[in-house]
Design goal:
Blueprint lengths: L2 E9 L8 E3 L2 E3 L3 E2 L1 H7 L29 H10 L2 E3 L2 E5 L2 E7 L19 E7 L4 E8 L8 E4 L4 E9 L4 E10 L5 H4 L4 E8 L6 E16 L2 E6 L8
Parallel strand pairs: 3-8
Antiparallel strand pairs: 1-9, 1-11, 2-3, 4-6, 5-9, 6-9, 7-8, 10-11, 12-14, 13-14, 14-15
């Protein structure tokens, strides 16, 4: 039986990751990629969810290289029927920070292999108390941690989960989904007709998607939400 969760994340620290770089301004887009969420939620390489990976791709205790292995890490989630959508903001505030790493006398010198961590400039971050929401579609119930860490600074955030009322998978037809989606995960099972693009690495996302295919009908507040069915992590 398919279970759908509506999840909310509330930031307790400011959140930073470089979605785009404009000179020395490093900007954080108020969207959480579904790849990043899978790592933050502890779903990757976790025996509790039967998602362990081969030893050479192990992620739990030590990562020997800084090259992401999304295919190796996320494929076990497909096998266990666990899918996490990207997260959109419910409400958020942006803050600007100006700093210079060289002036921090207490800093620890990192190896030069570190990537995508600025040494000086300005960062546009998401402020504490901002909230995000996303969905998890799974074939079995999940118990996730209440507190998680996000972004380059491992910012603290609180996770709440709400199991949605029993959903019905409808036959193939046209519908609109306003939340962000990973296009690679829907384009093989749905006919994507129109969308807005969100440019961000490692895979640009889409939202306000008009598509044709199967979906789950879920009653949320005063509206019926249609969530695409049969989504899986795909990489080519």
């Amino acid at each position: 039986m398919t279970i759908l969760y509506r999840c909310t994340i509330e930031l307790h620290d400011s959140l930073y990751f470089a979605t785009r770089e404009i000179g020395r301004l490093y900007e954080t887009e108020p969207i959480l990629h579904n790849y990043a969420l899978c790592y933050a939620l502890g779903l990757i390489d976790n025996p509790s969810y039967q998602t362990t990976v081969a030893e050479e791709d192990s992620y739990r205790y030590f990562c020997p290289e800084q090259v992401p292995k999304y295919a190796e890490h996320l494929t076990p989630l497909n096998q266990q029927g666990i899918y996490v959508t990207p997260a959109r903001t419910v409400n958020y505030t942006a803050v600007l920070n100006t700093w210079k790493y060289a002036n921090n006398n207490y800093h620890v010198e990192m190896e030069k292999t570190q990537k995508n961590i600025p040494s000086f400039g300005r960062t546009k971050e998401i402020a504490p108390e901002s909230q995000f929401e996303f969905f998890i579609i799974t074939e079995k119930s999940l118990k996730l941690p209440k507190w998680i860490r996000l972004g380059k600074w491992a910012s603290k955030a609180e996770l709440t989960m709400e199991e949605l009322p029993s959903s019905k998978q409808d036959r193939e037809r046209e519908f609109i989904f306003s939340y962000p989606l990973n296009p690679l995960d829907v384009m093989f099972t749905h006919q994507v007709l129109s969308y807005d693009t969100i440019n961000m690495p490692p895979v640009s996302l889409i939202r306000n998607v008009r598509m044709r295919g199967e979906y789950y009908s879920v009653q949320m507040r005063k509206e019926t939400l249609k969530i695409p069915a049969q989504m899986q992590y795909r990489f080519r």
